[in-house]
Design brief:
The chain is α/β, with parallel strands linked by helices and 186 residues long. The chain has helices spanning 16-31, 48-53, 72-78, 107-121, 136-151, 172-181; strands at residues 5-10, 35-40, 61-64, 83-86, 100-103, 127-129, 156-158.
Amino acid sequence: QKKPVKILAAVQIASASGRDILSGIFKFLEDHANWQFHLIQYDKDFLPEAVASAPENGFDGIMATLPGASGTVDALLKTPLPVVFVNVGFQDIAKRRRPCADVRNDNAAIGHLAATSFLKNRGYSSFAFVPTNDKRWHVERGNAFRETLSRAGMQCATFSSAVRPDAPIEDGEGLADFLSSLPKPA
């Protein structure tokens, strides 16, 4: 019997995307019974020491969807183990000189698909984009959503909050007023 493949996986399962990633891991494990995953769920628990000690603790690789605590990214860049980065967007990944993979969503395609779906299948004539934050993935999706609508000759209102500019979605009253003001069906 082959030695089990041990993977240190840092996946934030508090988010829907993290749970989807974990679901994918479990589906993979159905066909790979000799793989073992040690799961770390929170940034605060994904420490540089865990990464640095992974080789001596018998791990064969690391999968990271979290940036981890301070210093963890540097440890990931230096570890001799293969690392799979999933939607983390670290600028320093290019500096890594050991085996790694950088797996990311195509955020522009997601924004385009959302707009196309609304244009073709729903019959809407009024569109809006509500940003949740200024993270790169959200900005890329929003830009592609608006650009796709613009190419189709449609306008797209974008919500902004004077109360919560850093997290507009949390301005419930402002968001309600914004959505109420849109021509219907929106």
